[in-house]
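Closing statement on the iron/sulfur cluster sub-project.
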Amino acid sequence: MKRYALFTGCTVPAQMQNYEVSALKVAGKLGIELVYPEGFTCCGFPYEAKDTFKQKTISIRNLAVAEEAGLEVVTLCSTCGSTLSKANHLFRTDRKYRGKLGDALGEIGMEYRGTTRIRHFTRMLYEDVGVERIRSLVVRPFKGVKLAADYGCHYVKPAAVFDGFDDYRRPHTLDDLIEATGASSVDFKDKMACCGAALLAVDEKTSVNMTKYKLDNIRASGAEGMVTQCPFCGIMYDVYQNTIGEYNLPVLYLPQLLGVAFGIDPKELGFKINQVKATNLLKKVGA
Amino acid sequence: MASEVTFRVQRFDPKTDREPRFKEYRVRNEPGMTVLDGLLQIKAETDPTLSFRRSCRSGICGSCAVRINGSSRPCCNAQINDNIVGGRLLVEPLANFDIIKDLVVNLDAFWGKIRQVHPWNESGEFRHTGKALMEVTADDLSEIRKTEGCIFCASCHSDCEALRSNRDFVGPAAIVRAYRFMHDPRDRLGNKRLDELKARTGIGVWLCAICGNCGESCPKLIPTNECIASFKNSWFSENKAPDGLKTTAENLEKMGRVYELDEFALRMREKLGLPPLTPNNAPKLEPILKKKGVAK
Ligand code: SF4
Ligand code: SF4
Ligand code: FES
């Protein structure tokens, strides 16, 4: 059985437990154990505005916790993944920075050797489980269902810290996993557009305009649902959707989609938390 | 070996078109050809009415940027063979600008933003101090060099997610420019630039949505996001950050997390059978966060 340290971040455990519970269920089905090592905190992202060095220290501290536990990190949030990977990349490639970060960690009695590997949950599924195995487990195929993939900006950016596992301009890993359920992942205008979440606390109007832009483009594509893998995208597209317009577009987290396809009871996948109800979509596949 | 490739090019002539339209051209593709070479071939051999900007053809002048398959960059800096998607190559004008004709856009908005940030050194006083030289250290120079390579191609501006939804945003290129002068020891304005920048650009750098596009589109590999974050850090240390972001940082300091694991969240976790988590992580981060000052 493969084991990974699950890095939940802040948003998922407090607000998007549907993402967390479905990830655990899907992992269980695939024989993957996700453990919660004591000691993880916020990834550090929100501190970028205040103090980028302290931000990196927070990230590296989390990586030291995983190193100590001897586990690879799997994140649910695209931004957590990118923030941790950025700090890791700096630590590994910039000697000066490495020294400073090492000192900062030493002051709190910790040490990091730079060995922790970080991947997004989706990437882990894609690389370690594989599209074929996932396809073979589908008992409720989403045949003929059109879905729109939402990656989250930081799933693949900055490209330099992601060892090129996917094309940051036109990523495909999430699309491939969506299609493994039998659904078709539709193309739509400016598919990699940003949800605007980072501006929610700064200028709500601009933020919501950004969300609306993508929702409009998805609607124009004829998609019946959206599949995301980033909790903050989830907040913008699902929780805020009704305040932006009448889209009626259910927003599923990837493991919710996979869970349903694998035959898991939707009740166990946290669908209650989804604001836009996926009832009609689920009916289509007999769930 | 020469092959053929289809260029799907956005056309628009305000005299005859109501809306942009697409036209496809077959291009002889020889090894080593850039997207600009393809456009030049079309103009020379097939359609002289196609308009686009170019000058140096070697990634220096910054005039030839277009969107290739949706991402912006100087097209003399892009190989045809690296950019063929599904047998063809999509060429559109830069986004976040008004189109003048075909691939030529009106860059006034871009230059206007650059002008906003006072893009020159205020070093006049030195000429009269009697001192012959002004010391510029290697560290100073490396800060300047980080951003000095900007060729004003406007690719970052075109790919900016925040600008698409709010054209008032000062934008990445102007911030990069401001950073360059902010870190030049020959400049006499120094920190005064911060206030000036704020006065001139309003909400300024804070409108960046941190999408990361500008860093990827920059042909000169300028660390745009680092520049943006550095301005934010400076303002934050002067207590001039937007309230929402102050609250977020305070939450992190108070709880080690941004969102509280309140009663409701804890009950929901229990109901779903999720593992218990430590609600307050602050003690773990306190030794890191309590240190004074912004480290470099
Ligand atoms: S990171 Fe900020 S400045 Fe750069 S393109 Fe995105 S929104 Fe614009
Ligand atoms: S920062 Fe880079 S992408 Fe932006 S205008 Fe300058 S060279 Fe072009
Ligand atoms: S023609 Fe000068 S940069 Fe492309």
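Chain A touches chain B through 60 residues (CB under 8 Å). With this model delivered, the sub-project is considered complete and its resources will be redirected to Aim 3.
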